[in-house]
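Run log, item B.
One chain of 181 residues. Sequence copied directly from the ordering sheet:
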Amino acid sequence: MRVLGVDPGLTRCGVGVVEGVAGRPLAMLGVGVVRTPADAETPDRLVAVERGIEEWLDTHRPELVAVERVFSQHNVRTVMGTAQASAVAMLCAARRGIPVALHTPSEVKAAVTGSGRADKAQVGAMVTRVLRLDAPPRPADAADALALAICHIWRAPAQNRLQQAVAAHRATHRVLKGRTA
């Protein structure tokens, strides 16, 4: 499975591509940051984020895009920019028919480090170890994007089994409900 991880942001949008399957060594295929000038107007910044993500999609052809789920922050301007960049990433993937998965920051931290409260340095260290890199990717947004991709690859098999079980349960429920009607 090839996953593009996106750590959304208007100033720095982390992107990273990881390939592999759960239980096997993973490989980093690329990592970087899509940057936009802080003094540019928001619509122009969103276009720049879109172009950057489209480039990554063209270059790496991921099977899935994993995006950090936006969570409430104290700074409304920051959360708005993050949400907008997140929407751009999801739109780029959807336009191409690429499935999108959303993961919370604590879910990603727990998957990669074992603790949902890990700090940026711990996430960077584990990404470095898991992907057998010489040094942690910089800036932290890039490491976070790789962590998102790793999280999805490791959790996808369990999530798929859960979704199948829920679907089977619903189908059984519909059949049983139909018998009693």
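Observations after the first pass:
- Helices lie at 42-60, 76-95, 105-113, 120-130, 140-180.
- The CA atoms of residues 10 and 76 lie 13 Å apart.
Flagged for discussion on Thursday.
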